[in-house]
Amino acid sequence: MEKKIILSIESSCDETSAAIVINGREVLSNIIASQIDIHEKFGGVVPEVASRKHIEAVNWVVEEALKEANVTLEDIDAVAVTYGPGLVGALLVGLQYAKGLAYSLKLPLIGVNHIEGHICANFIDHKDLVPPFVSLVVSGGNTFIVHVKDYGEYEILGETRDDAAGEAFDKVARAIGLGYPGGPKIDKISKEGNEDAIKFPKAKFHEDTLDFSFSGLKSAVLNYINKKNMQGEEINRADVAASFQKSVVEVLTENVLATCEKRKINKIAIAGGVASNSYLRNNLIKEGNKIGVEILFPSLVLCTDNAAMIGSAAYFQLIKGYSSGLDLNAKPNLKLGEK
Ligand code: KG4
């Protein structure tokens, strides 16, 4: 197999990252400059601040990625970059940088869908993983159940009709005073709480659908907190977090396992920031075991935003002969499977 070395760049939200990846599966470097500390004091990502910080970091992460991988720009076969979905100003920073590099080095430019990148993170950690499989994509902006039919070939079978799972985690965390980003904080505090303490509604539709809805659950948590405040009662944050988390995880688990049964597939690869949730991981493994479904996760660093996953997705496009023009633009609402 011919060796292809890809330099990839990711800047869709609050992480500036560059990576060097060989043949979509071997990561030589994956440098991530996180802005979490800066956005934390605002309680969420401030888009204009994010764009400015990407500008400051992008050159540095690329230089570090080359240095750590011990390669030079002459060794690179293609430049890959996230072009959506994400914050438009943030995306444009990585995109313009990648275009400049590809043009000056006369290399193919490969625009990558960020969600596809999350799915492909699994190819890095699971060297034998090949399609078909089912993927549950759970991040700050997206919640999808996807049938991965082949490399780059996706059918969305279920999606959120309102908030993404990560967004619900972040909003509930803010409401109980845990701060941003809420997912990891809820995950942690839940370990001290009782998951059966409060009966929050399960975000389930009555129709025959694999879609999700998390806004009703989020409202139920907010109502619970308001009621307790009005009654002058203290809330037990760990119990609220654990009960909320259980509600989210049960629905994610039920829907993704139902998809496997429907499609007769016995492998699920989880992707996105929420895939690092320990309760989700344990619950999926437990329930998957009961019906013979194997559950795969990327390592924690590959769950959240990073450029290695973008380099992996780009490789499978490159070997199919796809590349982007220099007129490639940022697409903040890019859907999976859309060009
Ligand atoms: O994939 P990601 O880094 O960025 C997007 O592409 O959205 O995901 C970020 C989201 C945030 O909402 C964050 O709260 C959530 O992933 N998250 C978690 C955990 N770690 C990150 N949610 C639940 N439990 C976690 N351990």
Automatic annotation (TrEMBL):
GO terms for cellular component: cytoplasm. Required for the formation of a threonylcarbamoyl group on adenosine at position 37 (t(6)A37) in tRNAs that read codons beginning with adenine. Is involved in the transfer of the threonylcarbamoyl moiety of threonylcarbamoyl-AMP (TC-AMP) to the N6 group of A37, together with TsaE and TsaB. TsaD likely plays a direct catalytic role in this reaction. CDD domains: ASKHA_NBD_TsaD_bac. It is an enzyme of class 2 (transferase). Its EC number is 2.3.1.234. This is tRNA N6-adenosine threonylcarbamoyltransferase. Binds 1 Fe(2+) ion per subunit. It catalyses: L-threonylcarbamoyladenylate + adenosine(37) in tRNA = N(6)-L-threonylcarbamoyladenosine(37) in tRNA + AMP + H(+). Residues 26-311 form the Gcp-like domain. Its cofactor is Fe(2+). Keywords: Acyltransferase, Cytoplasm, Iron, Metal-binding, Transferase, tRNA processing. It is found in: Cytoplasm. GO terms for molecular function: iron ion binding; tRNA N(6)-L-threonylcarbamoyladenine synthase activity. Its main location: cytoplasm. GO terms for biological process: tRNA threonylcarbamoyladenosine modification. Pfam families: TsaD. Fe cation binds at residues 114, 118, 305. It comes from Clostridium paridis. InterPro entries: ATPase_NBD, Gcp-like_dom, KAE1/TsaD, Peptidase_M22_CS, TsaD. Signal peptide: none annotated. Belongs to the KAE1 / TsaD family. Substrate binds at residues 137-141, 170, 183, 187, 277. Transmembrane segments: none annotated.
